[in-house]
Each structure stands twice: as C-alpha cells, then as structure tokens.
Design a protein that fits this description.
This protein is an alpha+beta fold. The chain has three domains: 108 residues, Outer membrane lipoprotein wza domain like (Outer membrane lipoprotein wza fold like, Roll); 106 residues, wza like fold, CATH 3.30.1950; 79 residues, Roll (Outer membrane lipoprotein wza fold like), CATH 3.10.560.10. It has ten helices and 18 strands.
C-alpha cells in the first residue's frame, strides 16, 4: 500500500511532464506556426518521371537538338545598303548655296541655349549627333516645324517631312531657279532630334540614342551606350517595337557571328539589357555551398555548377545520384530529369560536356548511411528522454 502511494506522485509527475512536452511547441521560444486553422487536404503527388542516365549519346542528342529560335521583329529595310534617313519635325537642316552667302547657313555663328553651353556651327558639323546629350546646344539652321515645313528666303514655306536631304536639295533648287541662275546648293542634317531609341537595363550609359543617317544596329546601340555591365545577360536582350516584345541573342552575334540577331533599330524602339536573374542555375543537395549560379556567356556545365558551389560533400554525398531537373519554364508538370554517375571513370569528362540551361536544378543526392545517421540523430534525443522518464518512475 505504501509503495502504491509512492507511485501516485511519480505518475502525476510523469503525466505533467508529458503534457508540458506535448505543448512545448506553444511555449518554447522560436518561430512557431499554429496549423490548427489550416485545412490541408492535398495529398503528396505520386507521379513518376523517367530518368535519363547521362552518357555520351545523351550529350550528343542534346547538342544536336535544334534551338528554339525567337521570331525576329519586322524590319523596314532588308539590309543596311537600302537604309535611307528621312527628315521629320524637330530635325535641324543646314543649307549651303554657293556664291550666295546671304542664303547660306552661317558657318561662324555662335549660338547658345540660354545657359553656358555654346558652340559654333562648324563644330556642330563635326559632331555625329548619334547620342542625345542633355543640355546640348542646337546648331543654327532650319528647324523643321511640327507641321513638317521649313521657311527659306524667296521660296517661303517648304514641306520637308518624310523626304531625304537629296529630295529637299532638288526641291529647293527648282524653287530658286526663277530667282538665281543655275542655283547650286547642298542640304545636310545638322542635328538629328526627331527620331531616337531608348537604351535601358544593364548598360553603363542608359538613355536615348538618336537615329541618324548611319544605320543603327543592336551591337552599335550597345557600344554607343558604353557597353554592358558585368551583370548583363546578352542572350536575352529585349526589344519592344510596335507594342510587341522580341527577344534577341546579342551574344550569338559576338561569339558565333549570327548577324541575323544584329537587327537594325528604328525610331521608337526600346532596348532593355536584362540582368542574369533568369539565367541562373540552382545547385542544391549535398554540396558545400548550395547556391544559385549565374551562367557565364550563356554557358555552364555540370562541372561548372558543382565547382562554383564548392564541390560535393565528401562524407555525405552520393556521387551516383547527381540529378539535373529541367523544364521549369516550358513544361513544369513533366520535367526532364537526367542523372550523372560520378563514380564512373568517364564521369568527369561527361560532367564538363553536359551543358545546362537556364533555370536547371542540379541536385546532389544523400548517401544511404548518412540518411540513417541523421535519422538516429533525430530519434536519439527522444529515446534518451524516455529512458530518463523511466528512471524517474522507479
């Protein structure tokens, strides 16, 4: 009877301890989410996916697979040889009429925009005006009005919008013929201000670029913007034209000479050089530093990804289970899964030849013994607690 009386406090103590242990989630410090108000009835997916062992044949098939080419934007001119610049409002024209300096654009005049920026017309003639500069003074000349006309002595209002400098020259010569015998004149653009494109994103000098009589291509625009930054992704240059978005691969122009991607730009185009956020590769699992890896010049192999992540863990990784999960963009419901067996002699060579794609996931599996040890480490504290509780009830 006395022994039973001694057991009652021990049982009460054990019961209280177990109650406190079960409610530790609500009393222990740290982050805690009460799931009692969450209704989670979704079952774990049971779909299976085929796994392709990475071999020399698989790599050859991947390399031979045709790339998905993006449609090119419609162009006004078939090639640069057909390019013609046409005058639009806000362009500034200079007219030279031989033996008639009173009708010629003054070459020595100094002009100003009202501030400290001044220049001569001769200096303006030497400037290419391929890049719009804030505060740049305008050369003295014939500014095309919003209605597309200019005023010229003896001729009056002349419509020049939509015409080339050669057509304007012939038009003025014919209009001056009644007043000047055999007029010889020349017309040129002193400032290209009507047409421009916008450069944005990962370039060193973002801003507007003027469209001139020299054809402006994608590579030219990048060069005139000071080049790209170290985070630029030249494989996915975004061109907005006519309300539609086109993706261009400027890297193929520089590396492989694919001039089809070096499109000719036109007024109103918006060029965006994105960063490499969408070109990342994710390295996970038993590696020293799980991390996203940026592709270099649009290329990265399994060996590159594992090296940048510090390599696999010697004691924890299962080198026969290095998976590449592909399809996050095109078909996330049915991804392509590849496996590389790094225990084979030719695995190192295969790891350098298998090229990854943006958004690929490289996962290094866990060795079976490590999984068992981790399970033991999770269960052992509970077993120790039960053992001490049993000792208290004796």
């Amino acid at each position: 009877m006395a022994r039973q009386n001694m057991l009652i406090p021990r049982v009460l103590l054990l019961t209280s301890f177990m109650s406190a242990l079960l409610s530790a989630c609500s009393t222990a410090p740290g982050n805690f989410l009460n799931t009692s108000r969450l209704e989670d009835k979704d079952l774990t997916p049971t779909a299976t996916y085929p796994v392709h062992l990475i071999t020399a044949d698989v790599i050859a098939q991947e390399q031979a697979a045709p790339d998905v080419t993006q449609p090119l934007p419609p162009a006004r001119f078939a090639d640069e040889a057909q390019y013609v610049y046409r005058i639009e409002p806000q362009d500034i024209l200079g007219v030279t009429l031989w033996d008639h300096p009173e009708l010629t654009t003054p070459q020595g005049s100094t002009l100003s925009t009202g501030g400290n920026t001044t220049q001569t017309v001769a200096g303006a003639l030497r400037q290419p005006y391929t890049q719009a500069l804030p505060g740049q003074a305008d050369p003295y000349g014939q500014t095309v009005s919003p209605n597309g006309t200019i005023f010229f002595p003896f001729v009056g209002s002349v419509r020049v919008a939509g015409k080339t400098t050669g057509e304007i020259r012939d038009q003025l010569a014919a209009a001056l013929a009644p007043y000047i015998k055999n007029p010889q004149l020349d017309v040129r653009v002193l400032a290209y201000r009507s047409q421009k494109i916008a450069m944005t994103g990962e370039v060193k000098q973002p801003g507007p670029l003027a469209v001139s009589d020299v054809p402006l291509t994608l590579v030219d625009a990048i060069t005139r913007s000071g080049g790209t930054t170290s985070e630029a992704d030249l494989q996915r240059v975004r061109l907005t034209r006519g309300g539609k978005l086109y993706v261009l691969d400027a890297n193929s122009v520089l590396d492989r000479g694919d001039i089809s991607q070096n499109v000719m730009l036109q007024s109103g185009d918006i060029i965006n050089i994105p960063d490499r956020y969408d070109s990342r590769i994710f390295v996970m699992g038993e590696v020293k530093t799980p991390m996203p890896v940026n592709m270099v010049r649009g290329r990265a192999s399994i060996a590159d990804a594992l090296t940048l992540a510090g390599g696999v863990l010697d004691t924890d990784a299962n080198v026969r289970q290095i998976y590449v999960v592909r399809g996050a963009r095109s078909n996330p419901a049915r991804p392509d899964i590849f496996r590389l067996d790094m225990s084979q002699p030719d695995s190192l060579l295969l790891s350098t030849q298998f090229q990854l794609r943006p958004q690929d996931v490289v996962y290094v599996g866990t060795a079976g013994a490590v999984q068992f040890n981790r399970l033991i480490n999770q269960v052992l504290p509970t077993l120790q607690t039960l053992f001490y509780l049993k000792q208290l009830t004796r």
